[in-house]
Amino acid sequence: MQLDQNIMKRILPVLLVLVLPVTAMAAGDGQPNVFAGSIAQSIAAAVVFLILFFILYKKAWGPILSGLQDRETKIKGDLEQAEKAATEAKQTLELYKEQLASAQEEAKRVIDQARSDAQKIAGQLRSDAESEIRTLRERATADIAAAKESAVNEIYNQTANLATSIAGRILRREINESDQEQLVRESLAELGNVNKN
What we know:
Oligomer: single chain
Strand content: under 5%
Largest sheet: none
Radius of gyration: 66 Å
Mean pLDDT: 79
Helix content: over 70%
Distance between the termini: 133 Å
Number of strands: 0
C-alpha cells in the first residue's frame, strides 16, 4: 500500500500538468493558456481525468503493482537462494580443502612410516645376515680346526704305529746299512699308502 500511495503522488501531478494545457488549448486561439476556457470544460476534464485515473488505478495499477511485487519477491528469493548456495558451496569447499589436507598428511605419515619400517627391516636383515655369516665362519673355523686336529692325531697315531713297527723290526734283527735303507723305503711306502686311504 505504501508503494501505491507513492506512485499516486508522483503520477497525479504529471497527469494534471498534461491535462490542463490540453483543455486550455481547446478553448483558446491556439496559444496555450492555462486559464482560457470555461469552468465547465475544466470540471469536465478534471472529472474525465479522475474517472480515467480510478479506472486505471483499479484495473491496471493493481495487476501492474502485483506483478512488480511478485517480481521483487521472486528476485529477493532468488538472491537469498543464491547467497545460501554460495555459502553452502564455500562451506563445502572449505570441508573439501580440510579433507584434502588431512588426506595429504595421512599419506605423508604412511609414507614416512613405511620408509621407517623399511629401514628397520633392512637393518634387521643386515644384522641377521652378518650374524649368520659370523656363525658360519666360526663353525667353518671350528670344523677346520677339528679336521686339522683329527688329521694331526691320525698322523701321530700312524707315525707312532710305524715307529713301533720299525722299532720291532730293528729289535728282531741286527740291521746293516742296506737293511736300514730298505726299512726306511718300506716305512715311507706304508706311510704313503696310509695317507692315500
